[in-house]
Amino acid sequence: MNSRLAAISTGQTPEQIIELLEKGEIAPGEAFTRFCQLNKGVGLADDVDAQYRRKIEEIMGELDSLIGLDAVKKLVREIQAFVEIQKRRSQERLAAEPTVLHMVFRGNPGTGKTTVARILGAIFREMGVISKGHLVEVERADLVGEYIGHTARKTREQLRRALGGILFIDEAYSLARGNEKDFGKEAIDTLVKDMEDHKHDLILILAGYRNEMETFLQANPGLRSRFPIHIDFPDYSIGDLLAIADLMVQKRQYKLTPAAKEAITAQLRGKAAVQTVNFGNARVVRNLVEKAIRRQAVRLVRKKYVTRDELMLLEREDIEEE
Q1: How far apart are CA 200 and CA 40, in angstroms?
Q2: What pTM value is reported for the model?
Q3: Do 221 and 247 reside in the same domain of the chain?
Q4: What span, in angstroms and rounded, lies between the C-alpha atoms of 104 and 99?
Q5: How many Å apart are CA 217 and CA 220, to the nearest integer?
Q6: Residue 227 sits in which domain range?
Q7: pLDDT 10s digits, 234-291
Q8: Same domain flag for 129 and 255
Protein backbone atom coordinates (compact mmCIF):
# COMPACT_ATOMS: atom_id res chain seq x y z
CA MET A 1 0.00 0.00 0.00
CA ASN A 2 1.40 3.45 -0.91
CA SER A 3 1.49 6.55 1.30
CA ARG A 4 -1.80 7.93 -0.02
CA LEU A 5 -3.71 4.75 0.79
CA ALA A 6 -2.11 4.50 4.18
CA ALA A 7 -3.33 8.01 4.95
CA ILE A 8 -6.82 7.21 3.67
CA SER A 9 -7.12 4.24 5.98
CA THR A 10 -6.46 6.25 9.15
CA GLY A 11 -10.14 6.96 9.72
CA GLN A 12 -9.93 10.76 9.67
CA THR A 13 -13.01 12.92 9.93
CA PRO A 14 -13.96 15.47 7.23
CA GLU A 15 -12.92 18.27 9.61
CA GLN A 16 -9.46 16.73 10.06
CA ILE A 17 -9.02 16.37 6.30
CA ILE A 18 -9.99 20.03 5.75
CA GLU A 19 -7.56 21.11 8.47
CA LEU A 20 -4.70 19.19 6.83
CA LEU A 21 -5.57 20.75 3.48
CA GLU A 22 -5.64 24.28 4.90
CA LYS A 23 -2.24 23.73 6.54
CA GLY A 24 -0.82 22.57 3.21
CA GLU A 25 0.08 19.16 4.64
CA ILE A 26 -1.85 17.35 1.91
CA ALA A 27 -2.48 18.27 -1.72
CA PRO A 28 -6.05 19.03 -2.95
CA GLY A 29 -6.07 15.83 -4.97
CA GLU A 30 -5.25 13.78 -1.90
CA ALA A 31 -7.96 15.55 0.10
CA PHE A 32 -10.48 14.70 -2.63
CA THR A 33 -9.39 11.06 -2.54
CA ARG A 34 -9.87 10.91 1.24
CA PHE A 35 -13.36 12.37 0.97
CA CYS A 36 -14.20 9.76 -1.67
CA GLN A 37 -13.00 7.05 0.68
CA LEU A 38 -15.16 8.40 3.49
CA ASN A 39 -18.21 8.43 1.24
CA LYS A 40 -17.71 5.14 -0.56
CA GLY A 41 -15.61 3.06 1.79
CA VAL A 42 -12.27 1.43 1.17
CA GLY A 43 -13.49 -0.42 -1.91
CA LEU A 44 -11.81 2.25 -4.06
CA ALA A 45 -8.37 1.44 -2.68
CA ASP A 46 -7.31 -0.63 -5.68
CA ASP A 47 -8.49 2.06 -8.12
CA VAL A 48 -6.64 4.77 -6.21
CA ASP A 49 -3.50 2.65 -6.13
CA ALA A 50 -3.73 2.05 -9.89
CA GLN A 51 -4.22 5.77 -10.54
CA TYR A 52 -1.23 6.57 -8.34
CA ARG A 53 1.00 4.14 -10.24
CA ARG A 54 -0.18 5.43 -13.61
CA LYS A 55 0.58 8.99 -12.56
CA ILE A 56 4.09 8.06 -11.40
CA GLU A 57 4.79 6.25 -14.67
CA GLU A 58 3.42 9.21 -16.62
CA ILE A 59 5.90 11.52 -14.90
CA MET A 60 8.69 8.99 -15.39
CA GLY A 61 7.73 8.89 -19.05
CA GLU A 62 8.35 12.63 -19.22
CA LEU A 63 11.79 12.02 -17.73
CA ASP A 64 12.53 9.23 -20.21
CA SER A 65 11.52 11.48 -23.12
CA LEU A 66 14.43 13.82 -22.38
CA ILE A 67 17.30 13.43 -24.82
CA GLY A 68 20.44 11.88 -23.37
CA LEU A 69 20.98 12.03 -19.59
CA ASP A 70 20.94 8.23 -19.23
CA ALA A 71 22.89 8.20 -15.96
CA VAL A 72 20.68 10.96 -14.54
CA LYS A 73 17.49 9.06 -15.45
CA LYS A 74 18.82 5.90 -13.81
CA LEU A 75 19.63 7.75 -10.58
CA VAL A 76 16.24 9.47 -10.47
CA ARG A 77 14.51 6.08 -10.78
CA GLU A 78 16.70 4.76 -7.96
CA ILE A 79 15.71 7.70 -5.75
CA GLN A 80 12.00 7.20 -6.51
CA ALA A 81 12.23 3.48 -5.76
CA PHE A 82 14.17 4.10 -2.55
CA VAL A 83 11.59 6.57 -1.24
CA GLU A 84 8.71 4.22 -2.13
CA ILE A 85 10.26 1.22 -0.38
CA GLN A 86 11.14 3.18 2.76
CA LYS A 87 7.50 4.29 2.99
CA ARG A 88 6.31 0.72 2.64
CA ARG A 89 8.76 -0.44 5.32
CA SER A 90 7.48 2.25 7.67
CA GLN A 91 3.89 1.14 7.05
CA GLU A 92 4.90 -2.40 8.00
CA ARG A 93 6.64 -1.07 11.12
CA LEU A 94 10.07 -2.07 9.84
CA ALA A 95 13.20 0.02 10.33
CA ALA A 96 13.39 2.58 7.51
CA GLU A 97 16.30 4.63 6.24
CA PRO A 98 15.93 8.41 6.63
CA THR A 99 14.75 9.96 3.36
CA VAL A 100 16.84 13.13 3.24
CA LEU A 101 16.32 14.36 -0.31
CA HIS A 102 18.30 17.60 -0.46
CA MET A 103 20.51 17.41 -3.55
CA VAL A 104 23.47 18.87 -5.41
CA PHE A 105 23.25 19.16 -9.21
CA ARG A 106 26.64 19.59 -10.90
CA GLY A 107 27.01 20.50 -14.55
CA ASN A 108 27.23 23.25 -17.13
CA PRO A 109 24.25 25.51 -17.93
CA GLY A 110 21.77 24.08 -20.39
CA THR A 111 22.32 20.43 -19.48
CA GLY A 112 18.82 19.78 -18.10
CA LYS A 113 19.24 20.52 -14.39
CA THR A 114 16.17 22.73 -14.02
CA THR A 115 14.00 20.40 -16.10
CA VAL A 116 14.94 17.38 -13.98
CA ALA A 117 14.29 19.39 -10.79
CA ARG A 118 10.74 20.15 -12.00
CA ILE A 119 10.14 16.47 -12.74
CA LEU A 120 11.40 15.51 -9.28
CA GLY A 121 8.96 17.99 -7.74
CA ALA A 122 6.08 16.29 -9.57
CA ILE A 123 7.26 12.82 -8.51
CA PHE A 124 7.63 13.72 -4.85
CA ARG A 125 4.26 15.48 -4.81
CA GLU A 126 2.53 12.34 -6.06
CA MET A 127 4.38 10.26 -3.50
CA GLY A 128 3.30 12.56 -0.69
CA VAL A 129 6.87 13.57 0.18
CA ILE A 130 6.04 17.25 -0.39
CA SER A 131 2.59 18.78 -0.51
CA LYS A 132 2.75 20.99 -3.63
CA GLY A 133 5.72 19.95 -5.76
CA HIS A 134 6.34 23.37 -7.33
CA LEU A 135 9.80 24.68 -8.19
CA VAL A 136 11.15 28.04 -7.03
CA GLU A 137 14.35 28.93 -8.89
CA VAL A 138 16.62 31.55 -7.30
CA GLU A 139 20.18 32.83 -7.47
CA ARG A 140 22.48 34.80 -5.18
CA ALA A 141 20.76 38.17 -5.77
CA ASP A 142 17.44 36.70 -4.58
CA LEU A 143 18.96 35.60 -1.27
CA VAL A 144 21.71 38.05 -0.31
CA GLY A 145 20.81 41.47 1.02
CA GLU A 146 22.67 44.75 1.23
CA TYR A 147 22.79 45.35 4.98
CA ILE A 148 22.73 43.45 8.27
CA GLY A 149 19.49 41.56 8.73
CA HIS A 150 18.38 42.02 5.13
CA THR A 151 19.83 38.69 3.95
CA ALA A 152 18.03 36.54 6.49
CA ARG A 153 14.73 38.20 5.59
CA LYS A 154 15.24 37.75 1.83
CA THR A 155 16.34 34.15 2.24
CA ARG A 156 13.39 33.26 4.46
CA GLU A 157 11.01 34.85 1.96
CA GLN A 158 12.31 32.53 -0.77
CA LEU A 159 12.08 29.57 1.59
CA ARG A 160 8.49 30.51 2.37
CA ARG A 161 7.67 30.63 -1.37
CA ALA A 162 9.22 27.18 -1.84
CA LEU A 163 7.54 25.52 1.15
CA GLY A 164 5.76 22.40 -0.05
CA GLY A 165 8.06 22.16 -3.06
CA ILE A 166 11.66 22.53 -4.20
CA LEU A 167 13.96 25.53 -3.75
CA PHE A 168 16.47 25.41 -6.63
CA ILE A 169 19.52 27.62 -6.04
CA ASP A 170 21.48 28.18 -9.24
CA GLU A 171 25.20 28.98 -9.05
CA ALA A 172 24.98 28.19 -5.33
CA TYR A 173 28.76 28.41 -4.96
CA SER A 174 28.49 32.19 -5.39
CA LEU A 175 27.09 32.37 -1.85
CA ALA A 176 30.56 31.51 -0.51
CA ARG A 177 32.39 34.16 -2.49
CA GLY A 178 33.68 37.40 -1.00
CA ASN A 179 35.37 38.26 2.28
CA GLU A 180 34.24 37.79 5.86
CA LYS A 181 31.92 40.79 5.58
CA ASP A 182 30.04 39.32 2.64
CA PHE A 183 26.44 38.42 3.46
CA GLY A 184 26.53 35.19 1.45
CA LYS A 185 27.54 33.22 4.54
CA GLU A 186 24.49 34.55 6.36
CA ALA A 187 22.30 33.22 3.54
CA ILE A 188 23.93 29.78 3.87
CA ASP A 189 23.41 29.76 7.64
CA THR A 190 19.74 30.74 7.22
CA LEU A 191 19.21 28.03 4.60
CA VAL A 192 20.78 25.36 6.81
CA LYS A 193 18.63 26.29 9.81
CA ASP A 194 15.35 26.61 7.96
CA MET A 195 15.79 23.49 5.83
CA GLU A 196 16.00 21.57 9.10
CA ASP A 197 12.92 23.32 10.51
CA HIS A 198 10.89 22.44 7.37
CA LYS A 199 12.51 19.11 6.52
CA HIS A 200 9.16 17.34 6.10
CA ASP A 201 7.85 19.65 3.36
CA LEU A 202 10.80 21.27 1.61
CA ILE A 203 13.62 20.05 -0.62
CA LEU A 204 16.68 22.15 -1.47
CA ILE A 205 18.73 21.66 -4.63
CA LEU A 206 22.07 23.43 -4.96
CA ALA A 207 23.18 23.70 -8.59
CA GLY A 208 26.20 24.96 -10.47
CA TYR A 209 29.35 24.18 -12.43
CA ARG A 210 30.96 20.88 -11.42
CA ASN A 211 34.35 22.18 -10.24
CA GLU A 212 32.95 25.24 -8.47
CA MET A 213 30.34 23.16 -6.63
CA GLU A 214 32.99 20.68 -5.46
CA THR A 215 35.16 23.52 -4.13
CA PHE A 216 32.11 25.07 -2.46
CA LEU A 217 31.22 21.82 -0.66
CA GLN A 218 34.82 21.24 0.43
CA ALA A 219 34.85 24.71 2.00
CA ASN A 220 31.57 23.96 3.78
CA PRO A 221 31.87 20.39 5.13
CA GLY A 222 28.60 20.75 7.05
CA LEU A 223 26.74 21.22 3.76
CA ARG A 224 27.96 17.99 2.20
CA SER A 225 26.35 15.88 4.93
CA ARG A 226 23.05 17.77 4.56
CA PHE A 227 22.95 17.22 0.79
CA PRO A 228 23.52 13.47 0.45
CA ILE A 229 22.36 13.11 -3.18
CA HIS A 230 24.76 14.36 -5.85
CA ILE A 231 23.81 14.19 -9.53
CA ASP A 232 26.26 15.00 -12.33
CA PHE A 233 24.82 16.36 -15.58
CA PRO A 234 27.22 15.65 -18.46
CA ASP A 235 27.53 17.83 -21.54
CA TYR A 236 25.52 16.59 -24.51
CA SER A 237 27.21 14.79 -27.39
CA ILE A 238 26.98 16.13 -30.96
CA GLY A 239 24.33 13.48 -31.66
CA ASP A 240 22.30 14.55 -28.62
CA LEU A 241 22.51 18.20 -29.66
CA LEU A 242 21.28 17.37 -33.16
CA ALA A 243 18.33 15.48 -31.67
CA ILE A 244 17.58 18.48 -29.43
CA ALA A 245 17.70 20.76 -32.48
CA ASP A 246 15.22 18.52 -34.30
CA LEU A 247 12.88 18.56 -31.29
CA MET A 248 13.08 22.35 -30.91
CA VAL A 249 12.32 22.85 -34.59
CA GLN A 250 9.36 20.44 -34.54
CA LYS A 251 7.82 22.12 -31.49
CA ARG A 252 7.92 25.44 -33.38
CA GLN A 253 6.34 23.79 -36.45
CA TYR A 254 9.41 24.12 -38.63
CA LYS A 255 11.44 21.51 -40.50
CA LEU A 256 15.13 21.21 -41.27
CA THR A 257 16.12 20.26 -44.79
CA PRO A 258 18.89 17.63 -45.05
CA ALA A 259 21.28 20.41 -46.08
CA ALA A 260 20.28 22.48 -43.05
CA LYS A 261 21.00 19.51 -40.77
CA GLU A 262 24.44 19.19 -42.34
CA ALA A 263 25.03 22.89 -41.72
CA ILE A 264 24.01 22.58 -38.05
CA THR A 265 26.29 19.56 -37.63
CA ALA A 266 29.21 21.50 -39.12
CA GLN A 267 28.55 24.47 -36.81
CA LEU A 268 28.34 22.26 -33.74
CA ARG A 269 31.56 20.47 -34.62
CA GLY A 270 33.26 23.80 -35.22
CA LYS A 271 32.11 25.17 -31.86
CA ALA A 272 33.18 21.98 -30.09
CA ALA A 273 36.69 22.31 -31.56
CA VAL A 274 37.26 25.85 -30.25
CA GLN A 275 34.99 26.00 -27.19
CA THR A 276 35.89 23.26 -24.75
CA VAL A 277 34.15 24.83 -21.74
CA ASN A 278 30.35 25.10 -21.57
CA PHE A 279 29.91 23.89 -25.12
CA GLY A 280 27.78 20.76 -24.92
CA ASN A 281 24.50 22.26 -23.79
CA ALA A 282 21.05 22.95 -25.17
CA ARG A 283 21.49 26.72 -25.08
CA VAL A 284 23.98 26.54 -27.96
CA VAL A 285 21.36 24.71 -30.02
CA ARG A 286 18.54 27.06 -28.99
CA ASN A 287 20.60 30.04 -30.14
CA LEU A 288 21.29 28.35 -33.50
CA VAL A 289 17.62 27.50 -34.05
CA GLU A 290 16.31 30.93 -33.06
CA LYS A 291 18.87 32.66 -35.29
CA ALA A 292 17.93 30.37 -38.20
CA ILE A 293 14.25 31.25 -37.77
CA ARG A 294 15.04 34.96 -37.87
CA ARG A 295 17.20 34.57 -40.99
CA GLN A 296 14.47 32.52 -42.68
CA ALA A 297 12.05 35.35 -41.94
CA VAL A 298 14.37 37.88 -43.60
CA ARG A 299 14.73 35.58 -46.61
CA LEU A 300 10.98 35.03 -47.04
CA VAL A 301 9.67 38.51 -46.26
CA ARG A 302 11.01 39.77 -49.60
CA LYS A 303 8.75 37.34 -51.50
CA LYS A 304 5.24 38.36 -52.52
CA TYR A 305 3.83 34.81 -52.33
CA VAL A 306 5.01 32.25 -49.76
CA THR A 307 3.72 28.68 -49.55
CA ARG A 308 2.98 26.76 -46.35
CA ASP A 309 5.97 24.50 -46.97
CA GLU A 310 8.27 27.50 -47.43
CA LEU A 311 7.05 28.94 -44.14
CA MET A 312 8.03 25.71 -42.40
CA LEU A 313 11.36 24.85 -44.05
CA LEU A 314 14.71 26.00 -42.68
CA GLU A 315 17.35 25.88 -45.42
CA ARG A 316 21.13 25.65 -45.35
CA GLU A 317 21.45 29.38 -45.98
CA ASP A 318 19.42 30.04 -42.79
CA ILE A 319 22.00 28.11 -40.77
CA GLU A 320 25.36 28.92 -42.32
CA GLU A 321 27.29 31.94 -41.18
CA GLU A 322 27.74 34.67 -43.75
Answers
A1: 30
A2: 0.77
A3: no
A4: 15
A5: 5
A6: 66-233
A7: 988 889 999 999 999 999 999 999 999 999 998 888 877 766 556 668 888 998 999 9
A8: no
